[in-house]
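Priority: low. Protein: HNH domain-containing protein. Input follows.
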Amino acid sequence: MTEKLLDRDSFREGVFARDRNTCVTCGALAVDAHHIIERKLFDDGGYYLSNGSSLCTRCHLYAEMTVLSVEEIRRACGVDKPVLPKGFTTERSYDKWGNEVLPDGRRVPGPLFDDHGARKILQRAGVLYDGTFDTTKMPD
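Result:
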């Protein structure tokens, strides 16, 4: 069965209802309906319930900075069958911005690597150094 694509308001309402208006990572009052995988990576906007989580302001910043991983957030809100953007697979791990996360923690640049917003938040998080990932392994 295919998960239903929601509009923005229904996404927000559905995520908050599922998570009981509580930040799934720390238990504080939720104020943001966070896209676990950046919506720009989806051809249709990515407004799927399985791609959302309720977060407080602090945890939302941590999620955007990729301090909280996609997997941690999915586990916290009970998502075990996520909808993924075209070209992504459940056999690989990705950060919020679509960069592949290798088992040793290194990242392979993804489709949004040159996106200004993604680069800005990843630099703030200390993930980018001189405009690239530190010790990034490029695929062979």
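Helices lie at 8-18, 57-64, 70-76, 116-124. The two ends are 35 Å apart (CA to CA).
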